[in-house]
Amino acid sequence: MKPFKKNKKEAYSIIVGCGRLGANLANQLSEKGESVLIIDAAKEAFRKLSPSFAGITLVGDATYLGVLHEAEIEKSSAVISVTNYDNTNILIAQAAKELFGIERVIARLYDPERECVYREFGIDTISPAVLSMKEIDKLLGFESGSEENAI
Ligand code: AMP
Questions:
Q1: Closest CA to 59 of 105, 16, 11
Q2: Does 149 score more than 60 pLDDT?
Q3: Whose CA is nearest to atom 22 of ligand 1?
Q4: What is the rounded distance in angstroms from the CA atom of residue 38 to the CA atom of residue 29?
Q5: pLDDT band at 14 (very low <50, low <70, confident <90, very high)
Q6: Could you read off the pLDDT of 107-119 as tens digits, one per residue?
Q7: pTM of the full predicted structure?
Q8: Is 64 in the pocket of ligand 1 (CB under 6 A)?
Q9: Which of 15, 18, 20, 40 maximizes ligand 1 atoms within 8 Å of its Cβ, making it the mutation to test the pocket?
Q10: Domains of the chain by range and CATH?
Q11: Secondary structure of 65-117 in the HEC alphabet?
Q12: What distance in angstroms lies between residue 16's CA and the mean position of ligand 1's atoms?
């Protein structure tokens, strides 16, 4: 796989947080041939990336504007913030949207009650609790909209 280098022509996604979710997502996108830049505050976190990962890694606290500038966030096509802190993910998502005008912004939120607030700002959110609930419903056969469950 050809390593990706940032330039004006190539669209790339920025992932913030190289934890279990971020690293898997980065590996998967890179495997599909997408250009990815992944940021993590801890250098060791990048050990989770697969040896074939062809993107760029950047060590830094992404709540600092300097780090986002270094990532050339304004040139990215999508920003996905999946650190382990809701407030951090929201801060980064809002900066991406409001300061840098990025269209596709996704933030992970552990607290599902805050989801609706951020949707109003045009930030898509994913909540592990909500996704798990839906999956459990599906496994139990209670999935909404399913004809078998219609009264
Ligand atoms: P996990 O809980 O496994 O999804 O991992 C979350 C990752 O987010 C960890 O590798 C953290 O080092 C990283 N992280 C947390 N806060 C920040 C931040 N402000 N900037 C960059 N990475 C962060």
A1: 16
A2: no
A3: 40
A4: 11
A5: very high
A6: 999 988 888 778 7
A7: 0.89
A8: no
A9: 40
A10: 12-149 (3.40.50.720)
A11: HHHHHHCCHHHCCEEEECCCCHHHHHHHHHHHHHHCCCCEEEEECCCHHHHHH
A12: 7
